[in-house]
């Protein structure tokens, strides 16, 4: 039997204030997992999103770029 496709929903709410960029991230996935995170910089927010997206394809090489991602998801 084919495995159901994995999916994730990630909501990012971001704003600027006197301290810089702030972001709140909420995510859920097809496995019933969820995450809530706050970030104080764009880099922190990007790391959270990257981590959540990488969970969709756990065996993706860590140095994978767009070409590697496309090849992995089309197999």
| Global morphology | flat
Largest sheet entry:
3 strands, antiparallel
Report the total helices: 2
Q: What series of H and E elements makes up the topology? A: EEEHH
Strand-residue fraction? 25-35%
| End-to-end distance | 17 Å
Structural class: alpha+beta
Low-confidence stretches: none
Q: Please, how many domains?
A: 1
Count of extended strands:
3
Helix content: 25-40%
Rg on CA atoms, Å: 15 Å
Strand order of the largest sheet: 1-2-3
Let me know the average pLDDT: 81
Walk me through the topology:
Elements: E1 8-17, E2 20-29, E3 34-39, H1 42-54, H2 66-74
Antiparallel strand pairs: 1-2, 2-3
Structure description:
- It is a single chain.
- The chain has one domain.
- It starts with 7 loop residues before the first strand and ends with a helix.
- A 3-stranded antiparallel β-sheet has the order 1-2-3, covered by helices on one side.
- The protein contains 2 helices and 3 strands.
- The chain is flat and about 45 Å long.
- The chain has helices at residues 42-54, 66-74, and strands at residues 8-17, 20-29, 34-39.
- Strand 1 and strand 2 (20-29) form a beta hairpin.
- The chain is of the alpha+beta class.
